[in-house]
Amino acid sequence: MKTLSISKIREEYSDSIIKTFSVVPSPKVSDAVVEPYNATLSVHQLVENTDETFCIDNEALYDICFRTLKLTNPTYGDINHLISATMSGVTTCLRFPEQLNADLRKLAVNMVPFPRLHFFMPGFAPLTSRGSQQYRSLTVSGLTQQMFDAKNTMAACDPCHGRSLTVATGF
């Protein structure tokens, strides 16, 4: 259903930027049999019909809740809180004026070296659990270090063990 919608939107609004936040399933969070099939079958449509795809991994979110936020039994509400915080951070440029990457098109131009390489791995800092009211002061270097830490990455991989074609940070 989602890929059909994206395909129709691409046909109707061919010159608009299409951004998606795609959640990859994990057996740690849900044991639904069809989830891996849905994710696998949607990749082709994401490659062909989107301009920016932010890949969010349920396993990484579960690990963030369990290890970083110290939640003993993470719920969908806790996982959705992390996703919404990430989406809010990525789309900040649409709500507040800034100089660099001020809209979706500029972000795509600066981040996508080749049209089919538009899959991003978001990181977020500082991580807080739902209802948390703890405030602490952090430096820019501390926030940057947290963003590139594998424990704060929304995909189950370590960004320090590999190569990045492009990187964007927003403060």
Automatic annotation (TrEMBL):
**InterPro entries given for it?**
Beta_tubulin, Tub_FtsZ_C, Tubulin, Tubulin/FtsZ-like_C, Tubulin/FtsZ_2-layer-sand-dom, Tubulin/FtsZ_GTPase_sf, Tubulin_FtsZ_GTPase
Protein keywords = GTP-binding, Microtubule, Nucleotide-binding
Q: Is Chaperone one of the keywords UniProt gives this record?
A: no
A Pfam family it matches: Tubulin_C
- SUPFAM superfamilies named in the record: Tubulin C-terminal domain-like, Tubulin nucleotide-binding domain-like
GO molecular function, a single term: structural constituent of cytoskeleton
Q: Which cofactor does it need?
A: Mg(2+)
Gene3D superfamilies of this UniProt entry? Tubulin/FtsZ, C-terminal domain, Tubulin/FtsZ, GTPase domain
Q: Name one GO cellular component term.
A: microtubule
Q: Name the GO terms of the biological process aspect.
A: microtubule-based process
Report the domain of life of the source organism. Eukaryota
Q: What family is this protein classified in?
A: Belongs to the tubulin family.
Please state what the protein is called: Uncharacterized protein
Provide the organism lineage as a comma list: Eukaryota, Metazoa, Spiralia, Lophotrochozoa, Platyhelminthes
